[in-house]
Amino acid sequence: MTPSDHSGGGTGSLRLWDRLSVTTKQIVWAWLFLAVPILFFGVVRFYPTLQAFWLSLTDWDLLNEANFIGLDNYRKMLADPLFWQVFRNTFAYLLIGTPISIAISFVIAYYLDRVRFLHGAIRALYFLPFLTTAAAMAWVWRLFYQPPPIGIINGFIGMLGFEAQPFLRSTEQALPAIMVTAIWAGLGFQIIIFLAGLRAIPTTYYEAARVDGLGEFTILHRITLPLLKPTTVFLVVFSSIGFLRIFDQVYNMTSNDPGGPLNSTKPLVLMIYQTAFSSYQMGYAAAQTVVLFTILLVITMIQLWILRSR
Amino acid sequence: MSRSATAPVPRSIRPGAIIAWTCLFVGGVIMITPLLFMFSTSLKSAGEVFDLRLVPANPTLQNYVRVLSDGRFLGWFLNSTLIAVITTVSCLFFDSLVAYTLAKFRFPGRKLVFLAILSTLMIPTEMLVIPWYLMSSSLGWTDTYWGIMFPGLMTAFGVFLMRQFFETVPDDFLEAARIDGLNEFTIWWRIAMPLVTPALSALAIFTFLGNWTAFFWPLIVTTDRDLYTLPVGLSSFAVEQSIQWEMIMTGAALSTIPTLLIFLFFQRYIVRGVMLAGVKG
């Protein structure tokens, strides 16, 4: 039966196989190769997606049968002050975290690109955090943010003669404190990608610009940045999606009251997690995931639109 | 890379370059400060944690002995390794096979299959975990290795990445192999695959790291502590240790050391792989 062995040609099925045209054989092989993956993507990606949409229209709570309740979950969400708080937090991570991390990583990559002395070693310093586990590093940063005498940051602040800061214990400082951790965790990857983008710019552009006597800033503004646009767009989208889905850091840095203090750091994914797996309101949680999906879709569309106009 | 080959002879070093280098170096040290303090605190005794010096006055390995003694970390380490290795092998095999088929075969429905797989990139894991959880609990997959790893056995990212590389493989090579009488599977495995090894290593790095550090789904699908992966295990361990920071840092260090060691050995490949995947992906 296996089409792989067509040297023998003894059985009827093999003779049939040999009579197939090259094109037909290609089609058979192609679908043979794709059979298991198509099954996988159907069962593990597409069906669950549809199911999530369906569940968002039900009141399923893991114990009782799911009943269709129309858009009630969405109405409940819009009236839920916690949802709006979480929505604001999520966009705070995204809208503040993304530009800051992109700016920092670009500046570092821009200068690192010109460094020859110990280039590899310095690059490694910036890249190392990318290889760490977010859950583990969240605890390291949590230690950093502790009040004196344990917290290193407060120790440093104290050395400079300033007052100790509450950081993770304050409703105002906790979110920025977690954001710093997330930015730190993502910098290494962004720097490496920017470096790759910078290297892909042909040297002739720079040579021509120098011949024309353009200054460094003009070169950056007129040549480097425009040619780097695809890389930048990719990183902005990648980093936005990362901040939109932030979870590991928040969950681990505020584990005594996840998303606290007073929900001031709670992002959408943490709300989804708690709605689904602490209060078992599966239908309501599914509706929240649909919102997350919609935001992601919008971001991706914006990316496609920007890259198309190029 | 072309630039370094044609790099001009070093000109006289300007003061600006020295300042830039120093800033970059200081910034790099700041970047690894969390790692340094993690290791430093893990080597301190309970009473010494309050001493914020980077180099411990009396470094000790007793925290490591204590954390490792009950065997839980070793178990979590083995779980994570097993899961990351299996998902990586699976992704390398299936993602490449799909990518190759989509890049090199002509058959009706090719575009549709590619677009369908590509479109799953837009579906966030968070949206799928509730149906996955439902599926896992009704099929008895919760608290099993299979339950933790089944969602990651194939990725659209891998298909997308590999397809771009398979497209650069010349058709003549494959045609020549066909004339020699090799079957299509052998052609893929023996002729095409060796031509895309850089892309394979890039995909391997991303898949391994992604599964090694994965937190959200393993947290949901496991309640049995023996089946925890390293990140989930560390998280529960840290909560349980409460304020014993030297113990928590030792746990954090133990879950970080493996990937750092891999990096030290394969730095060149990893950086190149990330660049490759980032630019092409």
From TrEMBL, chain A:
Superkingdom, natural source: Bacteria
Protein name: Multiple sugar transport system permease protein
Chain ranges passing through the membrane: 27-47, 91-112, 124-144, 175-198, 227-247, 290-307
UniProt xrefs under CDD domains: TM_PBP2
Similarity-based family: Belongs to the binding-protein-dependent transport system permease family.
Keywords: Cell membrane, Membrane, Sugar transport, Transmembrane, Transmembrane helix, Transport
GO biological process: transmembrane transport
PANTHER family hit by this protein: ABC TRANSPORTER PERMEASE PROTEIN (PTHR30193), INNER MEMBRANE ABC TRANSPORTER PERMEASE PROTEIN YCJO (PTHR30193:SF37)
Domain ABC transmembrane type-1: 87-303
UniProt-annotated location(s): Cell membrane
UniProt entry tagged with the keyword Cell membrane: yes
Xref: InterPro entries: ABC_transporter_permease, MetI-like, MetI-like_sf
Recorded topology in the membrane: Multi-pass membrane protein
Organism: Paracoccus versutus
Keyword Transmembrane included in the entry's annotation: yes
GO CC entries: plasma membrane
From TrEMBL, chain B:
Membrane topology according to the record: Multi-pass membrane protein
Localization of this protein: Cell inner membrane; Cell membrane
One Pfam family of this chain: BPD_transp_1
Residue ranges constituting the ABC transmembrane type-1 domain according to the UniProt record: 77-266
Swiss-Prot/TrEMBL keywords: Cell inner membrane, Cell membrane, Membrane, Sugar transport, Transmembrane, Transmembrane helix, Transport
Source domain of life: Bacteria
Keyword Transcription regulation: no
Main subcellular localisation: membrane
Keyword Transferase attributed: no
Bilayer-crossing regions: 18-39, 73-100, 112-133, 145-166, 187-209, 247-266
An individual GO BP term: transmembrane transport
UniProt xrefs under CDD domains: TM_PBP2 (cd06261)
GO CC annotation terms, alphabetical: plasma membrane
PROSITE patterns: ABC_TM1 (PS50928)
Function statement: Part of the ABC transporter complex UgpBAEC involved in sn-glycerol-3-phosphate (G3P) import. Probably responsible for the translocation of the substrate across the membrane.
Entry's family note: Belongs to the binding-protein-dependent transport system permease family.
Subunit structure: The complex is composed of two ATP-binding proteins (UgpC), two transmembrane proteins (UgpA and UgpE) and a solute-binding protein (UgpB).
Name by which UniProt lists this protein: sn-glycerol-3-phosphate transport system permease protein UgpE
Organism: Paracoccus versutus (Thiobacillus versutus)
Underlying gene: ugpE
